[in-house]
């Protein structure tokens, strides 16, 4: 009616000369346009509501948790906002087997690991380029679909120069040796700079870690609304690495611990305390873990006990896991809540 009124004002003879047939014809042209606009509006509103309906906190599905030997269970963690089924993947040592087991445990509606990978994984965040953190991505790349590959420049360079080359595999990247298949788009991460991951409601901030100085690894601080999750790739202790990377990270996340916003820390302990410090090659032991956690606890005014701590990347050997868990329990003098993630099980963080 508003449109016709405007026509009346502009053309006072509109009704007089055009008749009801012309009015009907005009309306027939208008209605489809209005319908299309309404559909677009509803689709956009639906997408917005999907993100806004996500709850605080996270759900985590470990696709692999170990630090070596068993190629079916290497570091890879799916993370989604609570209420969402769209994930990012933090490291990618094991993909297919982890998805297969998670599907068997009813964590996904689909029983096809490749379909889950294609439809529910919205990009890979690689902490460093060692094979126990990348092999699943590389091996499953032929069955994957186009998505982003996130990492520090030093990490992505290994994919460009060593992994996604025709001598080693095939170039599924969008740079490097021709022919370029352009399945994965390299996204250089800037340290301490948050980025948003479309379709997930998640934001990620990378922090540089030292993993056998001068080589770099990465910690990823994942945000969903006002809750956070911290995942660390392989890292040595600052004292041994002659670094201040962990100190800078603890300083950045301490306010989140104090405000009860940091829901969990996933951090490696690769070896037991019997391994000489000079032979750790950029990894932590139970004693070194607690040395670093003590620093974070002090910075957060003793509130670290309110943040769940998940110990990852235990290196396999006879009795190693039992020994590491025993040594962590003994060294845990500040009463931290410590757990050990299991492959293909759901972790809910609220």
Structural notes for this entry:
- The chain is an alpha/beta fold and 350 residues long.
- It folds into two domains: 2-46, no CATH class; 54-349, Metallo-beta-lactamase, Chain A, CATH 3.60.15.
- It is built from ten helices and 14 strands.
- The protein has a seven-stranded mixed β-sheet. The protein has a seven-stranded mixed β-sheet with strand order 7-8-9-10-11-12-13, with helices on one face.
- Helix 9 runs parallel beside helix 10.
- The longest helix has 39 residues, at 14-52.
- The model is unreliable at 1-49 (pLDDT under 50).
Q: How is the secondary structure organized here?
A:
Elements (H helix, E strand, L loop, with lengths): L1 H9 L3 H39 L2 E10 L11 E7 L4 E4 L5 H9 L8 H8 E5 L9 H6 L6 E5 L1 H11 L20 E5 L6 E3 L4 E9 L5 E9 L2 E6 L5 H4 L3 H14 L3 E7 L17 H14 L8 E5 L7 H12 L5 E3 L7 E3 L1
Parallel strand pairs: 3-4, 4-5, 5-6, 10-11, 11-12, 12-13
Antiparallel strand pairs: 1-2, 1-14, 2-3, 7-8, 8-9, 9-10
Helix pairs in contact: 3-4, 8-9, 9-10
The CATH superfamily of the largest domain bears the name: Ribonuclease Z/Hydroxyacylglutathione hydrolase-like
Order of helices and strands: HHEEEHHEHEHEEEEEHHEHEHEE
Q: How would you characterize the largest beta sheet?
A: 7 strands, mixed
Structural class by SSE content: alpha/beta
The strand line-up of the biggest sheet is 6-5-4-3-2-1-14
Computed over alpha carbons, the radius of gyration is 26 Å
Number of helices in the DSSP assignment: 10
What CATH calls the topology of the largest domain is Metallo-beta-lactamase, Chain A
| Strand segment tally | 14
